[in-house]
Specification:
Elements lengths: L2 H5 L6 H21 L3 E3 L10 E5 L6 H7 L5 E6 L6 H9 L3 E3 L5 H13 L3 E4 L17 H9 L3 E7 L1 H4 L13 E4 L5 H6 L2 H23 L1
Parallel strand pairs: 1-7, 2-5, 2-6, 3-4, 3-5
Antiparallel strand pairs: 6-7
Helix pairs in contact: 2-3, 5-6
Length: 220
Amino acid sequence: MSLTEQNVCPRKSFSKYLTYASSRFIFRLFALLLFRFHCQGRHHIPRRGGALICANHQSMLDPPLVGMAARRHLAYLARKTLFKQPLFGWFLRKVDGIPLDRGGMGFAGIKATLKSLKAGSVVVIFPEGTRSKTGELQQLKGGFIALVRRAKVPLVPCGFIGAHECLPRGTGMIRFRRIRCVYGKPISVSEIESLSDEQLLAMVHGDILECMQRANISRG
C-alpha cells in the first residue's frame, strides 16, 4: 500500500462533495430539532486514512445517524436492489454507496469495500447484519474481520440509543425521541493483528455495547 493510500483522504468530485455535505447538513438540522441528537467521541474517527466503523443497528435511521456526526465523508454498504431505484440509486452512488448482495456481502461487495478502505475511505458497517427487533445489541457476524485484517485499517466502534424508539423495525411511523450516539476508542491495526478472530469479535461486541451504555447514560 502506498503512502498516499495510507495517509491521504481520497478526493471527491465537487458534485459528490456537494451532495454529501448538503444531505448531512439537512439531516443534522432535522435530527437536532426533532430527536435532540447529541454525539460524543467523534474525535475517535481518524482524520486521515482508511477506517472501518462498526455500529449497532436499530432502525432505518441508522446510516445517516452514524454519518451526520462525523467530520469526514463516510461510505456505506447498501443492498444492490436499492441502486436500481432511479432517484435513490443516484443518491447512493453520489455518496459512495457500496452495493451489497441480498444474501450477504459477496465477492463483489468485499472487493469494493476493500478497495475503498485501502484508498483511504472510512466505511460504515452494521455487523449485526439486520436491525434489532428490541433495540438490544444482537450477536455480531464475523464477516468484517477478514475484511479489516486485509485492509489493515483501524476499527472504530459506535453505539447509539433511541433510534429503535423513533422508528422500530416493522413500522413506518416516526416518533420523536431523544437519540444519543457515542464513538469509542479505535482498535488499532497492531491490536487487530495480535488478536484471534474470536477475541477480536468479542472485543468489538464489548466496545459497541459500552458505547451504547454510555449513550444511554447521556440520554438519561
